[in-house]
């Protein structure tokens, strides 16, 4: 094992034996190289003639660039063209951390790591897998989950996704979740909590979230060592009263010494910048301090360096400018209002009792999506094709469930969309 990895492991072991035990073999072996090329480059910073970094520099010392590109970008070239650090730009890391506290006021005075910048949330989930999953490890997920977990965790790291039932009687199935987390005796447990959930568009109510956290706490008190990965891709897009306003990461990161909370989030959906590819990984555990978190940040940055080198500089710089703009909050509220209007249109359309002949809505209250479950005898994929060919409507079929991304549908078109689903079901039945 590289001595730099051993040095980080020693710090983690001294600060939290639980965190060290939960690290995967990859997680234990990874490190961010402070020596070699990166170390020598850092030492040479500020020299009159610097021939260390693998980038081209203009004669005036600014980044070399093509005017055909630079003329389209209203940012200082130094914030666009050079490499960003593997950890992410320091300014956006600090800003995002402050925003986590603003969005989750119950985190006041709770020490967290600095967020490490990833290439959006898919890469963030992958880096969480890199840090904590060995081949054969089980990852607890709901029976309705984002299909990309299969590629990022199962295919890439050899983990096994095991499911609990998400809904029972129109609410979060706490019994199924509790049974699954306690299945197989005491040991290492890894779970993904994705709220608002993709594909269902459901966020637990406050009492449900409290109950989920209590179940995790009880499992930790039994001696289970638990990694909770909170996929907060759609955070902040809640449309009903009574649902949890703060990320479930908030209570989990201060819950118990046997619980390591990993927050994966980003601007992709929250700020409508899907192509920017900027996400974050943030760590929290009860009793965690700056030294422990610094070691975890270094390991994560090492995994990123060995994987993609670093996330795009221009995207991070543009987002920092946006977050610092006095107009940011008002503009974001305006987009939220559009999303809420579409959500309300879906609710109104589904109040039509005739639709129950062929489908019923799965519980939803937030995010980008909602799903309808087809009645017995109906088949999702053939109906999906009828919708495309006859009605000009595109949906996603997940077995006998149809996922509707109403985030992409104008409120005025929602009624037509559900009428189309109804007619396509009728066509299939005929």
Task: Provide key terms for this protein.
Aspartate Aminotransferase, domain 2; 430 residues; 17 helices; 14% strand; 7-stranded mixed beta sheet; alpha/beta; Aspartate Aminotransferase, domain 1
In words, what does this structure look like?
The chain has 430 residues and is an alpha/beta fold. It has two domains: 3-32 and 86-323, 3-Layer(aba) Sandwich (Aspartate Aminotransferase, domain 2); 328-429, Aspartate Aminotransferase, domain 1. 43% of the residues lie in helices and 14% in strands. It has helices spanning 3-15, 17-22, 25-29, 36-43, 67-70, 90-103, 120-132, 148-157, 174-181, 206-221, 249-252, 267-270, 290-305, 313-323, 328-350, 380-391, 414-429; strands at residues 116-118, 138-142, 160-164, 167-168, 171-172, 188-194, 225-231, 259-266, 279-285, 359-361, 370-374, 396-398, 401-404. Strands 1-9-8-7-6-2-3 form a seven-stranded mixed sheet, with helices on both faces. Strands 10-11-13-12 form a four-stranded antiparallel sheet, covered by helices on one side. It has a two-stranded antiparallel ribbon with strand order 4-5. Strand 10 and strand 11 (370-374) form a beta hairpin. Helix 7 (120-132) runs parallel beside helix 8 (148-157) and helix 16 (380-391) packs across helix 17. The mean pLDDT is 96.
> How many beta-strand elements?
13
CATH topology of the largest domain: Aspartate Aminotransferase, domain 2
How would you characterize the largest beta sheet?
7 strands, mixed
C-alpha end-to-end distance:
66 Å
Strand order of the largest sheet: 1-9-8-7-6-2-3
The portion of residues forming beta strands comes to 5-15%
| CATH H-level superfamily of the largest domain | Type I PLP-dependent aspartate aminotransferase-like (Major domain)
Given the C-alpha coordinates, what overall shape results?
globular
Approximate helicity band: 40-55%
């Amino acid at each position: 094992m590289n001595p730099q990895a051993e040095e980080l492991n020693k710090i983690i072991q001294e600060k939290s034996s639980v965190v060290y035990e939960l690290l995967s073999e990859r997680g234990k072996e990874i490190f961010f190289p402070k020596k070699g090329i990166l170390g020598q480059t850092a030492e040479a910073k500020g020299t009159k003639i610097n021939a260390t970094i693998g980038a081209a520099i203009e004669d005036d010392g600014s980044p070399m660039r093509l005017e055909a590109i630079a003329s389209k970008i209203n940012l200082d070239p130094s914030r666009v063209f050079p490499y960003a650090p593997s950890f992410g730009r320091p300014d956006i890391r600090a800003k995002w951390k402050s925003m986590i506290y603003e969005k989750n006021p119950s985190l006041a005075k709770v020490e967290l790591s600095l967020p490490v910048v990833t290439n959006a949330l898919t890469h963030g989930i992958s880096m969480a897998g890199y840090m904590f999953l060995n081949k054969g490890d089980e990852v607890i997920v709901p029976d309705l989950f984002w299909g990309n977990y299969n590629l990022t965790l199962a295919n890439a790291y050899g983990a096994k996704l095991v499911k609990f039932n998400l809904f029972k009687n129109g609410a979060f199935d706490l019994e199924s979740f509790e049974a699954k987390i306690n299945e197989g005796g005491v040991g290492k447990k890894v779970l993904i909590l994705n709220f608002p959930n993709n594909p269902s568009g459901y966020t637990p109510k406050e009492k449900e979230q409290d109950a989920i956290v209590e179940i995790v706490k009880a499992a930790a008190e039994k001696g289970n060592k638990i990694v909770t990965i909170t996929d907060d891709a759609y955070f902040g897009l809640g449309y009903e009263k009574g649902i949890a306003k703060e990320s479930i990461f908030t209570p989990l990161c201060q819950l118990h010494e046997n619980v390591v909370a990993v927050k994966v989030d980003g601007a992709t959906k929250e700020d409508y910048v899907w192509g920017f590819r900027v996400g974050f990984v943030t760590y929290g555990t009860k009793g965690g301090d700056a030294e422990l978190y610094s070691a975890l940040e270094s390991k994560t940055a090492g995994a990123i360096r060995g994987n993609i080198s670093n996330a795009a500089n221009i995207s991070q710089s543009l987002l920092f400018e946006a977050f610092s703009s006095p107009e940011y909050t008002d503009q974001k509220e305006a987009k939220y209002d559009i999303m809420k209007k579409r959500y309300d249109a879906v609710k109104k359309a589904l109040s039509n009792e005739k639709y129950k002949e062929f489908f019923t809505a799965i519980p939803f209250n937030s995010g980008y999506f909602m799903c309808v479950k087809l009645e017995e005898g109906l088949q999702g994929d053939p109906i999906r094709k009828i919708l495309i060919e006859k009605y000009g409507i595109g949906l996603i079929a997940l077995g006998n469930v149809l996922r509707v991304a109403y985030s992409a549908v104008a409120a005025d078109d929602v009624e037509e969309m559900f009428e189309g689903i109804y007619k396509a079901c009728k066509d299939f039945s005929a």
